[in-house]
Write a structure and sequence with these properties.
With 430 residues, this protein is of the alpha+beta class. It is built from 9 helices and 9 strands. α8 runs antiparallel to α9.
């Protein structure tokens, strides 16, 4: 015992690997399995489970539990809560003549089943026959599946045979038949749970197929539009046409990004579910029964193409988004170059205007010197006349004539000095 504080999540993380134990089945057993997709985020799921437990005077799950097992008397219950769905597995031990004639689901209160708010995604019956039960040939097995083509194999090193047709029968349930040949303790429960998980994860993975088909049509149309836009980029002239193409590319980019946002989660979930299906099939360790496809072969033929379709559409979405981005960058570069050319022409025009303004300014400065000098000389002439009127002998005309170049020089020097002072100002524009 160490006297150190525990991390707040130490025990919950340690118990996580034990959160979903396998079912315990002792053949002969019958099982009914439901997988429900939530309509309200699964908030009422736990309440409905607690209501069922109260009917049979049993304690319900704790608020933090996502897994629950209980013996309710007429049947045993195993409940699991997953990210998108919940599963209810009902089990009954006892001999049976026909494995699917009296299913376990018939022992569950009908009004409670009708109160479930989720939508049924998977419903399946499983029957585990003991090793002492008489075994028939493939024809006998097929009759238990209403003569549908079946898939089957020997599993777990020959410890059992499993059979299914992966179809929804008239009662709304699929069917799995397990024959115990030499299963060890607890293997029956693990095997049955794996089969039910294969069916559940298979259907959940296929949820991505309808949006993949819809998205594939949109991607094909956008791809054609992008090819048309890219092909027309070489022949466009003028900034207006370039802007129009850029607007079209922006609309295509928004459409593809919206498509990706709507489908990325579903495609990612499909990849995860498909990986779980393959993992559960590998855990079966199948061996072929002559004349019958194995479960792995059935999935390879029927499920793998659907998953490849989803993967292909997801990759096409990503590739299309990248191509639109490259085309937009190329077109923006053309627009930027055109704008730079316009800016260059505008700067040249502004430079010419500035030169004209400078020349006009110089002309105005020359006129200003003449005007100011004229008024200054006129003032000087009035002063000289006043001096002469006071009795001083002054030749007003001669003095005025000599004053003209002096005044012109002084005025010109003053204007230049003022101009230089303005140009030295930090706010002056060259």
């Amino acid at each position: 015992m160490i006297d150190l504080p525990d991390h707040p999540q130490r025990h919950s993380l340690s118990n996580e690997v034990h959160a979903r134990p396998f079912m315990v089945l002792v053949p002969p057993e019958r099982v009914s399995h439901l997988a429900l997709v939530w309509e309200d985020g699964g908030e009422a799921d736990r309440e409905q489970l607690e209501a069922l437990c109260r009917r049979f005077n049993a304690a319900g799950p704790r608020s933090t539990e996502n897994h629950f097992v209980a013996d309710l008397g007429p049947f045993r219950l195993k409940w699991e809560r997953h990210t998108e769905f919940s599963t209810y597995t009902f089990m009954v031990h006892g001999p049976f003549a026909a494995p699917f004639a009296d299913p376990v689901i018939s022992r569950i209160p009908a009004d409670w089943i009708e109160s479930l708010r989720g939508k049924v995604m998977v419903a399946a019956h499983a029957a585990v026959e003991s090793g002492t039960a008489p075994s028939g040939g493939i024809e006998e097995v097929a009759r238990r599946f209403t003569s549908n083509p079946v898939a089957g194999s020997r599993v777990l090193a020959g410890g059992a045979e499993v059979w299914t047709d992966f179809r929804v029968h008239a009662d709304g349930f699929g069917r799995f038949l397990v024959r115990d040949i030499g299963l060890r303790e607890r293997q029956a429960g693990r095997l049955t749970q794996r089969l039910l998980e294969i069916e559940t994860y298979r259907v959940m993975a296929l949820l991505a197929l309808p949006p993949a088909r819809t998205a594939g049509q949109v991607v094909a149309r956008v791809d054609r539009d992008l090819a048309q836009i890219t092909g027309s980029m070489a022949g466009i002239e003028g900034l207006d046409q370039e802007r129009q193409l850029l607007n079209r590319l922006t609309l295509l980019a928004a459409e593809v990004e919206g498509l990706s946002a709507a489908n990325n989660y579903r495609f990612g979930a499909a990849r995860a579910y498909y990986a779980l299906v393959n993992q559960r099939i590998a855990e079966l360790r199948e061996a072929r029964i002559e004349g019958v496809p194995t479960i792995g072969e059935f999935m390879e033929r029927r499920l793998a193409p659907a998953m490849d379709t989803c993967k292909s559409v997801a990759l096409r979405q990503e590739g299309l988004s990248a191509r639109i981005t490259r085309a937009s960058q190329l077109l923006r570069t053309r627009v930027d170059i055109a704008l730079e050319g316009q800016n260059r022409d505008l700067l040249r025009s502004m430079n010419r205007r500035a030169q004209l303004q400078l020349r006009l300014q110089e002309t105005v400065e020359g006129l200003s010197v003449v005007v100011v000098s004229y008024y200054a000389v006129s003032l000087a002439a009035y002063v000289l006349k006043a001096v002469k009127a006071m009795g001083v002998e002054v030749n007003v005309d001669i003095a005025t004539g000599f004053a003209i170049p002096v005044v012109l020089g002084l005025v010109w020097a003053g204007v230049r000095r003022v101009r230089k002072a303005i140009m030295r100002s930090p706010d002056a524009t060259p």
